[in-house]
Structures are given as structure tokens and as C-alpha cells.
Design goal:
homodimer; alpha+beta; Creatine Amidinohydrolase, Chain A, domain 1; Creatine Amidinohydrolase; 2 domains; five-stranded mixed beta sheet; 17 helices; 13% strand
């Protein structure tokens, strides 16, 4: 267990007070079969279950009765046959005691608990694993659609409220995750300039570093000479000198706190003048975000400031034209930046995305946009002390998108397609770090900064 | 696609002839969410779907109408928004053409196909992923229990018949997987003797090698100083000089053919006399299996021969006593070897275990046992040319099991508990390689043998 018993007890008490009434059920994850029932992927506990219990075993469910305050950990004990295969395992009772939960019961008793409580309100989070969905379907005697519709908004709101603000202890664990990210990215940068290297080999080594120092990559690593494909998975093709290699990758610690960084490395060791022109704009945007991020500021506004700067600089390169403010309002820059400036990060790399991005990144004051590009801004509301967000501007030349916009004349008053087409084979640049909002502004997470300014990257690759 | 279009066409034709009538549905795998819907584990296609189509994309279903021979690949196309995130993707029509499948249709049309065909017999394999279970529940309007009960025995039998015999092309791919296994195990052996090393670090590096040269580990690596726990996952504790480190690990190639090897390395670089006594017995058992394995021989009988040799040798060490044959028939040796000699291997590391182990490893002639130990023999029937099986004897000292048997007097006429208790802290030894049955006998898979004889291991660690 990462934190003290008292921490988990307090978190559950706060949750109960926020939800107020009814029965709260928080499902832990089960093993996820890969290619047959007994061959599972590496176990990954549900983040919310871990947040409220600290327990890593599969097959557990936490129940909290808001009226009485009674807490129960549901789970089945293992027997001697299992001990031969898996060794001695902490009993459900010992886990409950460690987490400060008074009662335990076998999973089969969950149905008797749920039935009479449904009148008073049953609170569960939207299931994202199909086995949990089936558990709920069978427990409630409902269809999948009914189960999905029945998720509790008050429980979602309460969990988001608690998990959004990272404690000092959590920040220490996030720093550990970022340190693993440092090891991953510096290794990838070194490998990128080695002859005969492939994206797939680098991607595999990133898996290895994440697993050796933590538990698993926080998402499938993006390792691509085609950085313009936002989620480009590694191919077996050898790296081509002259291209850029975009690596977007992160680790989870053994306690499942995440990191998420992106670097874009010149495979030849040096950026070409064209690459540097674009790269330097992304650096400037990245740095700008950090000067603007502080408590009370909306991340939406920081995103828009970054878009303005990017538009100014792309105009100077002859790639955009017209009035900057009009271009940004029209979303013309989204041809180059079709995603948002960043997202919240924590125990999930897109923190709590499974609860509904709109409840995490938006609120009554800040509402989402449907405009292409801006619609992909995952987090937009006012920053608070203890928020952790990613700062990840990028510029991409996406041939399919360029062709579509040029053909349909989209934002043609702001885009210089002749010049843009000179960059068709460019690929893409993204630079990403993880940022903690502090009372004074913000700071990076991690023990050491992964080199990111063009001169620093080139010097580091030469060293 | 790994093999030629013709190969997949032929496989499907054989399948259709074996099943004979009705509609065959083979479900491909979908993305498996890890901690929220959009954050999935590394995609792993279903082995049977891959065997009959060669296609790696998620969200596909293959339908074969046995009466008409009509084949349809069901799947949905991606749109421009997806292209921005994932790049251009092969269309369902192009995949079907590559695999020699005449028709394609969107997934939504699957329900119209299934409804009228159910009378003539609907054939599907037992689903092992809960999302496929839900797909079937909704398609058939049935409960989970009904869906599970409705799996087709004739389809299971047909798939087992085809996939059990590995072609020359498949063997070449299995050799590639074993080569990755060689790289993994030699790396682990080197790391095992380095000061300050942890099981978790080694386990992570194995993930990295498997992913760099192939796709993923073929199962969660077992890396443990407590080899007596048969599936002991790596802990963060530093390796202790004097103990043995058991590493049971394998890789999948990018085309999802597997390897599975075990080595047991002395952390100090040399086996103690006690360790070598036990280790040498396991080596002898491992070698014995190879001299007995050939077409027409039952793997059951090879397992029993190994048990006899093990019992003889354990008697010589004073750990067992009495008549060897009686001891083996009573299952007394299972205190030390509570599992079977090996299992079939192929596109699944326990090949086709999801279809039902009994249909893969047993037949009308060879029936499973319920005796402790022997009941865990996953494969027992007569060997045929083209079978690939693992040869993995082991000897373990499991304190919980020793205490149970001593307390209850189980097999006390054959077991010398006083002597056995001197080995309580020993751990366990297992040695495992992958074996192809040939017309003349058998041979190892892989380009180079991972050192396994005690002298060879020690010399190799010194080199």
C-alpha cells in the first residue's frame, strides 16, 4: 500500500460526505484475458479503486453505505491449489484491515447487498471493462444499455473533485513516474541516432524500461517517423536519416502514477533548417504555456494564447496569412495543431477519462467547443493548486488533411496551401512535459529535464 | 500477412469440410481497455482468427457458410477523424482481398446474417474475452450462461485438428520465437549474477526484449527466487546470493507464434552441492523425455517415465523411499512435481487452451486423471509429426504443501519427510525447452540452445 491507512480512510470519508446518500460500489479490476482465459495481460488495478483502498489484487469490490458509514471489501479467498501456483496471498481480511475497512464478505454476497439498497440509490462509475459491465448486468438484471445509463453522476463528480487535486504524497509518486520517463526518453533519443534502428525496437525497449523501473507504459508508446499521425504506433521499418522521430511515451510506477512526455529527435543528429524553423515554434509555444499557467487561469485561455503565438510564427514562415485573431477564432491553425494543449494527468495518463472527459476538463463556466481541433482539448477549466496537466503543443503536416482542406477551401483565407505543400513530407513535431500547478505558477515534474531546445538536443546527442 | 493468400484459403476450405454444415463465426479480438476505454493494452489478435485470415486489425468477424461456401469479412471502415489520429489504415475490402475472402460487410449486418441461420446450426468457439461474450449475448439475445453453453463442439474439434499440426512455414516462425527466447534467457542469466539486481528489473527487461524483437511476452514472465511457486511473479526485492533464480518466460513474434523456456540460474554463479543434486535430476528428466518422444508415443507415457526416473533419483538422495512403481502410481512424486511434463505450443503458449484443454491434450484413447499432479498434465495423447510440445520437468520444495502432506500423512510410505524438511528453503528448479515431433523422433526449436547442464551454465556465467 502506497500511503498510510489513515489516508485511505480519510479519502473514503470525504467520498461518503460528497455523495451523501445511497450505496456506493467501486469495482476493482479483474484479470484481462489476452489470448485465452488463463493467459492475462499484466494486471492493472482500477485507478479509483486503488485511490480509495490502496489494494492491488484482482477480483475485489468496495461497498460504502452512506447512511450508516459501513464499509465492506468483497472478495474471495484463494485455496491450497492456488497456493501451489501463486504462493501465499494476503487474505481479504488482512487487506481490509490494512486499508481500514471494517467488514469483508465473499463476492457471492454482493447480490444480497445490492437488491434492497437500490431504492435508496445505487452509485457506481461507468464501467469501461466488459467483465465489470457483465458483473453489473447480472447483479442488476439489466441490459448493457441500462447498466451504462445507470452510472451515478454524483459519484463521478465526487471522485473527480477528490482525484483532481494531487496531494504532496501523490506528487512525490508522480515525480518518480517522470523520472522513469526521463530514462525512457533519453534512451530513445540515443537509439534514434544509431544506424539500422527501427521504431519497433525502440518501442520495445521503452516497454522494458517502464516495466523494469515501474510497472508498465502509461499508454502504448508512439514511436514514429510519421509524427503527423498523432497516435502512430511503431513499425518494423528502419529509421531514415534526415527524418524526425517523434516519441510520445510514459511510464506508470508500481503504484500506477503516470508520466507522459514527448520529444522529437533528428535521426541524423541535427535538425535541417526547415525542421528547425518548425521545431523552434513548438519550443516557443511550449515555453509560453508555462509562463501563463497558474491558479485561476483557464487552461482554455492558455491553449488559445499558444494558438495565437503559433499562428504569428507560421505567418512569419509564410504558411499562414491574414489577421491572427480572426485565424485563431476560425480554427485555421488547427490544420497544424488538430489537438489540445494538454490534459489532466494522475493515476490515469488522461486522468479519469473513463469517468467522462467533460466532467474532468470542463465545468459550468467552461464549456467544450465543437470546432475541429479545439474539440480535442481534453482539459480547459480554471487551474487550481495541485492540478497536474500536460503541456504538449505540436505542429503537423498531415497530407490527407491538407488535401481535404485545400479541396474544400476550408480556412483558405488564412492558409498558404502552396507553401504548406512544400512541407508535405515533413512529418510532425510535438514537445510534451508534465506540469504541476503551484501557488505561484507552475513547475515541471521530474528530477531532471529531458533536453528539448534544439541546440540542447543536438549538443546532448553529440555528447 | 505471414503466409500466402492460398494458405488461408486452403485452411478455411479444410475447416468448412470438417464442420460440414451450418454457419461458422470466428470472432477477431477487440481492443482491451486497461484503465479507461481509450487506453488499451497492446492489441493481440485472436489466434484462431489469425490462423484463418492472417489479419491483425481489431473489430473483425469472419463468417463462413458451410452450405454455399460463401465467406464474409465483417468490419467497419475508419473515417477522416481517425486518419488524423491513426494514419491511413487498410480498408476492410483490401484485407478481405488479401486473405482471399469474397465478401465484406459492416458489423451492424452481422445480426441479419445470424438470425435466419440459427436453425441450420451456428458454430462459434467459446468466447474468452468478455466483450466477445457481450457481442454474442446481444447477437443471439441470450444470457451469458446460454452463450457459453452454445459453443460448437464440431468447430472446436475442427480447429484443434488443423492447428495441432504445424506446417513447415509455421515451424519457421516458431523458430524465430525461440530465438527471441534465447535472447531473453541469456540476458536474464547474465543479469541474475549482477549485484543489486531485482526480479522486477529482470522481468521488465524481458518484456523489453520480447517487444523489441517480437511483439509481447507469450505470458507474464515468471522471475522468482521462490521457484517453488509455480507462477511466481517478479518482486522488487534484491536477489540473494546463494539462492536459485527461476525464470520461465517466452516471446511472441509479431505474427503471434510463441516460445516458452525455463532456466534456473545460481545467483552466486555456482550451484551449491545440494542445489546441484536436485538440478542434475531435473536435467536427467529433461533429457529422458527427448529420447522417448516420437510419433505414436503417448506424452502421458513419457510423463510417467520421467516420474519414474525422478522417483529413483529422489530415493537415491534419501528424499523418497519404497517401490518406485508403487510410488509413481500413488502420485507420491507429485509432492515435488505437482504439474505435468509439458503442453502443446503454437500461436498460444498453451496452444488452444481457450478451446478446452481436454480437446487439445486428450482424446478417446487417452483420458485425463484427477490425481494431484497428473491432473495438471495439459497434454497427454499420442504424439504426431508436426506437434510442438514443451518438455519442462521440475522439482520444487513447497513448504505449505510439505506441511499439508506430512500433517495428513499423504503418501507417507514413499516420502522421507525428515529429509525433505532439510530442503524447505531450497526453492525450485525447472528446465524447459520447446520440442518439435519429427518423423524420426524430436528436435529442439531455436537457433541455439540456451545453456542448461550445470557445468555448462556455470562455465557460461564465468565467460
Amino acid at each position: 500500500m502506497l500511503f498510510s491507512t489513515e489516508t485511505y480512510v480519510q479519502r473514503r470519508q470525504q467520498l461518503r460526505e460528497l455523495v451523501g446518500e445511497g450505496l456506493i460500489l467501486i469495482f476493482g479490476n479483474n484479470e484481462a484475458p489476452m489470448n485465452y482465459p488463463a493467459n492475462a495481460y499484466k494486471f492493472r488495478q482500477d485507478s479509483t479503486f486503488l485511490y480509495f483502498t490502496g489494494q492491488h489484487r484482482d477480483g475485489l469490490v468496495l461497498a460504502i453505505d452512506c447512511a450508516t458509514g459501513q464499509e465492506t471489501l468483497y472478495g474471495d479467498e484463494i485455496d491450497i491449489d492456488d497456493i501451489v501456483w501463486y504462493g501465499s496471498v494476503t487474505s481479504v481480511a488482512d487487506m481490509a484491515a490494512e486499508s481500514g475497512i471494517a467488514r469483508t464478505a465473499p463476492l457471492s454476497q454482493l447480490s444480497t447487498l445490492v437488491a434492497p439498497k437500490r431504492v435508496g440509490g445505487l452509485h457506481y462509475l461507468p464501467p469501461y471493462r466488459p467483465d465489470n459491465t457483465i458483473q453489473l448486468m447480472e447483479l442488476l438484471g439489466q441490459s448493457r444499455a441500462e447498466v451504462m445509463a445507470g452510472r451515478s453522476q454524483s459519484l463521478i463528480n465526487a471522485v473527480v473533485k477528490l482525484r483532481s487535486i494531487k496531494s504532496a504524497e501523490e506528487i512525490a509518486e508522480l515525480e518518480r513516474a517522470s523520472h522513469i520517463g526521463y530514462l525512457m526518453h533519453t534512451a530513445a533519443m540515443r537509439m534514434a541516432t544509431q544506424p539500422g534502428m527501427t521504431e519497433a525496437y525502440i518501442g520495445g525497449q521503452l516497454d522494458g524500461i517502464a516495466a523494469s523501473y515501474g510497472s508498465i507504459v502509461s499508454f502504448q508508446s508512439i514511436v514514429s517517423m510519421h509524427g503527423e499521425i498523432l497516435h502512430g504506433y511503431p513499425s518494423a521499418a528502419p529509421l531514415e536519416p534526415g527524418r524526425l522521430l517523434l516519441v510520445d511515451a510514459g511510464a506508470e510506477t508500481r503504484e500506477h502514477y503516470c508520466s507522459d512526455h514527448t520529444r522529437t529527435t533528428p535521426i541524423s543528429g541535427h535538425y535541417t533548417p526547415q525542421q528547425r524553423d518548425i521545431y523552434d515554434i513548438v519550443v516557443a509555444c511550449h515555453d509560453l504555456a508555462l509562463t501563463h499557467a497558474k491558479p485561476g487561469v483557464r487552461w482554455w485561455d492558455v491553449h488559445m494564447d499558444v494558438c495565437r503565438l503559433m499562428t504569428e510564427r507560421l505567418k512569419a514562415l509564410g504558411l499562414m496569412k491574414g489577421d491572427t485573431e480572426e485565424a485563431v477564432q476560425a480554427g485555421a491553425h488547427a490544420l497544424f495543431l488538430p489537438h489540445g494543449l494538454g490534459h489532466m494527468m494522475g493515476m490515469d495518463v488522461h486522468d479519469m477519462e473513463g469517468l467522462g472527459q467533460i466532467y474532468v476538463g470542463y465545468d459550468e463556466e467552461t464549456r467544450p467547443s465543437t470546432q475541429f481541433g479545439l474539440a480535442s482539448l481534453r482539459f480547459a477549466r480554471r487551474l487550481e493548486v495541485g492540478h497536474v496537466v500536460t503541456d504538449e503543443p505540436g505542429i503537423y503536416f498531415i497530407p490527407d488533411l491538407i488535401d481535404l482542406w485545400q479541396r474544400e477551401g476550408i480556412n483558405k483565407d488564412f492558409l498558404c496551401f502552396d507553401r504548406i505543400n512544400q512541407f508535405r513530407n515533413f512529418g510532425g513535431v510535438r514537445i510534451e512535459d508534465d506540469v504541476l500547478i503551484t501557488p505561484d505558477g507552475c513547475r515541471f515534474l521530474g528530477s531532471e529535464r529531458i533536453p528539448y531546445k534544439a541546440d540542447d538536443v543536438e549538443a546532448w546527442l553529440m555528447a
